């Protein structure tokens, strides 16, 4: 169990404190939703959490396979629905692994990414476009 304190700071901004570590995150509403866009929006954090979770679970899988995920990067594009209710409707995720891997390892890592807890927690109507490339 993880406990966080979240406080509304005014002007559509929040401060999140992770109590175990003391780390802090600020959120701000995006410009297209009456905010200043000066920090991650809550939906940005949700999308970033997906990418971070995928890399973490892929890293666990890579360790068990005896391969490295070092320097692997994600480019993630969050798309908002143009209709109401306002929600994330689609996320493009490009994972770039700077190592040569076998097809078997690639398939195993893709399953790990899609099986991460955040991916398993998001609504099934949210469209995920995942591509994994070795360089």
**SSE topology string:** EEEHEEHHE
Low-confidence segments, ≥5 residues, pLDDT <50? none
Euclidean distance between termini CA atoms: 38 Å
Which whole number gives the mean pLDDT? 96
Q: Helicity range of the residues?
A: 25-40%
> Total number of β-strand segments?
6
CATH topology of the largest domain: GMP Synthetase, Chain A, domain 3
- Beta strand %: 25-35%
> What is the count of structural domains?
2
Structural class: alpha+beta
Task: Assign the CATH class of the largest domain.
Answer: Alpha Beta
Total number of helices: 3
What's the CATH H-level homologous superfamily of the largest domain?
K homology (KH) domain
CATH architecture label of the largest domain:
2-Layer Sandwich
The global form is globular
- Radius of gyration of CA atoms, rounded to a whole number: 17 Å
Sheet with the most strands? 3 strands, antiparallel
Strand order of the largest sheet: 1-2-3
Provide a descriptive summary of the structure in words.
With 135 residues, the chain is an alpha+beta fold. The chain folds into two domains: 4-33, no CATH class; 42-134, GMP Synthetase, Chain A, domain 3 (2-Layer Sandwich). Helices cover 30% and strands 33% of the residues. It has three helices and six strands, in the order βββαββααβ. The strands form two sheets. It has a three-stranded antiparallel beta sheet with strand order 1-2-3, with no helix packed on it. A three-stranded mixed beta sheet has the order 4-5-6, with helices on one face. The longest helix is centred in the middle third of the chain and has 24 residues, at 42-65. The radius of gyration is 17 Å and the shape is globular.
